[in-house]
UniProtKB/TrEMBL annotation:
GO terms for molecular function: FAD binding; oxidoreductase activity, acting on paired donors, with incorporation or reduction of molecular oxygen, NAD(P)H as one donor, and incorporation of one atom of oxygen. Its cofactor is FAD. SUPFAM superfamilies: FAD/NAD(P)-binding domain. Residues 27-361 form the FAD-binding domain. InterPro entries: FAD-bd, FAD/NAD-bd_sf, RIFMO-like. The lineage of its organism: Bacteria, Pseudomonadati, Pseudomonadota, Betaproteobacteria, Burkholderiales. The keyword Flavoprotein applies. It comes from Paraburkholderia sartisoli. Pfam families: FAD_binding_3 (PF01494). The keyword Protein transport does not apply. Keywords: FAD, Flavoprotein. This is 3-(3-hydroxy-phenyl)propionate hydroxylase.
C-alpha cells in the first residue's frame, strides 16, 4: 500500500501496437489514470467494453489531494467492486461544526436518517483511492493499462480517433472509436485539440497542511471563521487515516505561494491552532489559488471530456473528485450502448448536456461558498459575520451560512432521457425522474442486503411494488416479459415483510426484495403496483402508479435515444 513518501509504481511494458503493421482499432481509449479515468475504465471493462487506459506517469498521485469522498461516489465504487477496502481504510463522518472566532455556532448532520449502507463521507487520501481502483483495474480482462505513455497528438477521422503516444520505446499510433479525456486540469488532450476552459479565478490563496499527529479531535468537519489563532481568515480541519490531519489556512491574495510552503511559515500556523507543545510532523504542504471554470462542451466528436479536464471548482464542498466520478458513472453505460450498436451516437450528447448542467450547479455552489468564505468588501464581511451570529440561535440563518455546500448528486430534472410523470400519477418523494436512487436495508433470498446494490450495472432496472392481493409467483410470471425486451430490464419485486413466497423459483432476471423495515416503500412513496424504471447509473428515468409494459418500452427507448 502506498504512502506519501513512497508512491506505488507500476511497470511499463512495450505495447504490441509499437510493432503492428496496421494499428489496431480499440473501442475506447481513456487518457489519465486518476480517480476519474480509473473509474470509467473499470466501468467500461466490467460492462464488456474492451478498453485501453494510458497515463503519462507510472505512479499514483503524490500528496493527499482529494480526501473527501461522498456517499454517492462510494455507491458507484460499490458497483465497481472496490469500495470495501476504501471504507475500511477511510475515516467515516457525517457531522460538521461551524465556529465564529472561538465559539461554536452550530452543528449539522449530513445523514441524520438511518437505513443507508454508506456514510455521508469518508476521508481518504487520493493515493489510497487510486491504489484500490488500480488494483481492481488490473483484475479486468477487458482493460489494458499502459504506463509512461504520454499523448502528444490527436487527430479525428471518420469512424475513429488516432492518438500519438510517446513511450520509453518511442512514439506509436493508438486508434480508438472513442477517446475519454480524464487527464486533469492541465489536460494534454484538451491542449492537442486547441480547446480551453472558461470561468472565474478567485483572488485568494489557501495553504493545505497535512499534519501527522495524535490528536483528540473527533472525526468531524470543523470550519472556523476568524478564529483567534488565525485572525480575519478561515481554517478548515479534517481527520484522515494514519493519524494525518488536513488543515486548510486562508492566506489572502497577497501571500507569496512559494514562501508560504516553507516549514518556517507553516509550523507556526499549525502551532497556533494546536498549541506550542503539540508534537506533529508535516507530511504534505501545498498552496493553491482556486478557480471555477468549465469547457463550453464536454463532447467534441469522438472525444469526451470528464473530471478536471472538463470542469474545475474550488475544493470547498468536495465537489471536484466526486463530480468527476459521477461524470464517469454517467458516461460509461451510454458509451457501452453506442459502441455495441444498441443506441445512436446522439446518446453521447446527453452525457455532455447532463454533466454540463451538473458542472454549472457545482460551480454555482462553489462560487457562492468562496464568496462567503472570502468576502471582498467591508459590506460583504459585515453581512457574513451578522449571518454567522444569527445562525447560533436562528435555524433560518444556517441555510445562508456557506462554508462549502457539501457534494450531493445532481438531480437531472430537465434531462431529455426522462419520461415526465403522468398528470394523474401524483408522487410525494425525492425519487423524481432524474434523481439518483436511494438506498435501504432489505432481504434477498432470506439474507440481509442493501436495495441499491440490487440495481444498476449494465442493465436498466424496473422496481415493481407488489400488490399483497396477488401471488408473488404469478406477479413474476406477468413481469417476465420486461426481461426480454430489446434492452432487457432486471426486475425487482418489492414485497412487504413476511410476504409468503411459497418457495417458487423466479424467472431469470427477476429478484424478490423484502422491504424488511418499510423504508423502500416510504422513500419511493409506493402503493401497490407502483413501478419505477432506473437507468444503469441508478438514476430514475420514469415512474407510474400502474404498470403498463408499453409505457415501459417507450420510456426505455426514450432513455436510450431510440425513440
Amino acid at each position: 500500500m502506498p504512502t506519501n513518501d513512497q508512491p506505488q509504481r507500476f511497470a511499463y511494458a512495450r505495447a504490441a501496437d509499437h510493432d503492428a503493421a496496421t494499428p489496431a482499432l480499440y473501442p475506447v481509449v481513456v487518457v489519465g489514470a486518476g480517480p476519474v479515468g480509473l473509474t470509467v475504465a473499470i466501468d467500461l471493462a466490467q460492462q464488456g467494453v474492451r478498453t485501453v487506459l494510458v497515463d503519462s506517469d507510472d505512479t499514483l498521485s503524490s500528496g493527499s489531494r482529494a480526501i473527501c469522498f461522498a456517499k454517492r461516489t462510494l455507491e458507484v465504487f460499490d458497483r465497481l467492486g472496490c469500495s470495501e477496502s476504501m471504507i475500511e481504510k477511510g475515516v467515516r463522518w457525517n457531522v460538521g461544526k461551524v465556529f465564529l472566532q472561538d465559539e461554536l455556532v452550530y452543528t449539522f448532520d449530513l445523514l441524520p436518517e438511518t437505513g443507508h449502507a454508506r456514510p455521508a463521507f469518508i476521508n481518504l487520501q487520493q493515493y489510497y483511492v487510486e491504489s484500490y481502483l488500480a488494483e481492481r483495474a488490473m483484475q479486468m480482462d477487458n482493460l489494458q493499462m499502459r504506463w509512461k505513455s504520454t499523448v502528444t497528438g490527436l487527430t479525428q477521422h471518420d469512424g475513429y480517433v488516432e492518438l500519438q503516444v510517446e513511450t520509453p520505446d518511442g512514439v506509436y499510433p493508438l486508434r480508438a472509436r472513442y477517446v475519454i479525456a480524464a487527464d486533469g486540469s492541465r489536460s494534454t488532450v484538451r491542449r492537442c485539440m486547441g480547446l480551453d476552459s472558461h470561468g472565474r479565478t478567485f483572488k485568494d490563496r489557501f495553504l493545505i497542511a497535512d499534519v501527522k499527529m495524535k490528536a483528540s479531535f473527533p472525526s468531524e468537519r470543523w470550519f472556523w471563521f476568524d478564529p483567534p489563532f488565525h485572525r480575519n481568515q478561515s481554517v478548515l480541519l479534517h481527520r484522515q487515516p494514519d493519524n494525518v490531519w488536513r488543515i486548510d489556512f486562508q492566506l489572502g491574495w497577497d501571500a507569496d505561494p512559494v514562501a508560504e510552503k516553507q516549514p518556517e511559515r507553516v509550523i507556526p500556523r499549525v502551532k497556533a491552532l494546536l498549541g506550542d507543545d503539540a508534537e506533529f510532523e508535516l507530511e504534505w504542504v501545498s498552496v493553491y489559488t482556486f478557480s471555477c471554470q468549465r469547457m463550453d462542451s464536454f463532447r467534441h466528436g469522438r472525444v469526451l471530456f470528464a473530471g478536471d479536464s472538463a470542469h474545475g471548482v474550488s475544493p470547498f464542498g468536495a465537489r471536484g473528485a466526486n463530480s468527476g466520478v459521477q461524470d464517469a458513472d454517467n458516461l460509461a453505460w451510454k458509451l457501452r450502448l453506442v459502441v455495441n450498436g444498441d443506441a445512436p451516437p446522439a446518446l453521447l450528447d446527453t452525457y455532455a448536456s447532463e454533466r454540463e448542467y451538473a458542472a454549472d450547479e457545482n460551480i454555482l455552489h462553489s462560487t457562492r461558498a468562496t464568496d462567503f468564505i472570502t468576502p471582498k468588501s467591508a459590506i460583504s464581511r459585515t453581512f457574513r459575520d451578522a449571518t454567522l451570529k444569527l445562525a447560533k440561535d436562528c435555524p433560518f440563518a444556517r441555510r445562508v451560512v456557506n462554508s462549502g455546500r457539501l457534494s450531493v448528486p445532481t438531480v437531472l430534472r430537465a434531462s431529455p432521457l426522462n419520461t415526465p410523470d403522468e398528470t394523474a400519477d401524483a408522487f410525494s418523494c425525492a425519487m423524481v425522474p432524474g434523481a439518483a436512487c436511494t438506498d435501504a436495508p432489505v432481504k434477498v433470498a432470506g439474507r440481509d442486503a442493501w436495495f441499491l446494490q440490487q440495481t444498476g450495472g449494465a442493465v436498466f432496472t424496473g422496481i415493481y411494488f407488489h400488490d399483497p392481493a396477488e401471488d408473488v409467483a404469478a406477479c413474476a410470471a406477468r413481469l417476465a416479459a420486461l426481461t426480454t425486451l430489446s434492452l432487457p430490464v432486471r426486475v425487482l419485486i418489492v414485497v412487504s415483510r413476511g410476504t409468503p413466497l411459497k418457495g417458487a423459483a423466479m424467472p431469470s432476471g427477476i429478484i424478490v426484495v423484502e422491504d424488511v423495515e418499510g423504508i423502500v416503500n416510504a422513500r419511493f412513496d409506493a402503493r401497490a403496483a407502483t413501478f419505477y424504471l432506473l437507468r444503469p447509473d441508478q438514476h430514475v428515468c420514469a415512474r407510474w402508479r400502474a404498470l403498463d409494459p408499453a409505457l415501459v418500452k417507450a420510456a426505455l427507448d426514450r432513455a436510450t435515444c431510440n425513440a
